[in-house]
Amino acid sequence: MTQDIARTAHQKLNAIPCWECQGAGLELEPGGRARCKFCGAVNDLAGPVCPNCEHVSSAGVHQCEACSASLIFTCSNCQASNWSGAERCANCGQHLDTLGALIARSGDTGLRFQARQRDLASLARQEEESARRRRAHLEDIDRRRQQAIAEAAARKAREQRIFVMATLVVAALALLAILGITIFALVGR
After folding, report:
1. Alpha-carbon torsion 10, 16, 17, 18, what sign?
2. Is this prediction's pTM over 0.85?
3. Less CB within 10 Å around the terminal CB: N or C of the chain?
């Protein structure tokens, strides 16, 4: 295997999609290539693949560019540098301690779960606040509508009173005019 950082052949990369068919689940081959298990296309990778987040980093880097996890695992037998997700040393073939990486990853899962729970609680608070603001806005609109209806009813009642008063004034003036004409006609006789 001639690679920048040794990887275990035929390891499945479940999160990386094929560039041809977009199917996720590539298998690593020697030489830094990944073969799609769906269409069989060979996908060349730029550099090492992070065992934690499966991000493909640039060639020659020692830490993942996405999650900052170490991409180098030193073999305790021959001190050769291996990819941190490798099961066997590329130099001597000895089994590498992958249990430590799995334990670290499972602890990270708890942290991710707690962060997700905090995000969900934050979203719930934001939704509750948004619903409260919408409720207050709708109540304000309803209050203004009720106020406008009350003002319109008061205006209509005021106009009706003015109309009745004007009608009574006109009727009183007409009655006074008739009475005045009648008195004038009686006195002038």
Report:
1. negative
2. no
3. C
Of 105, 73, 71, 69, which Cα lies nearest the Cα of 89? Answer: 73
Cβ-Cβ contacts under 8 Å for 160 (sequence gap 6 or more): none
Nearest by Cα to 65 from 82, 47, 83, 80: 47
Distance of CA 44 to the CA centre of its chain: 33
Neighbours of 61 (CB within 10 A): 16
Tens of pLDDT, residue by residue over 146-184, are: 999 999 999 999 999 999 999 999 999 999 999 999 998
Phi first, then psi: give them for residue 141, nearest 5 degrees: -60, -45
Cα 46 to chain centroid distance, Å, stands at: 31
**Burial of residue 80 (number of CB atoms within 10 Å: 0-12, 13-18, 19+):** middle
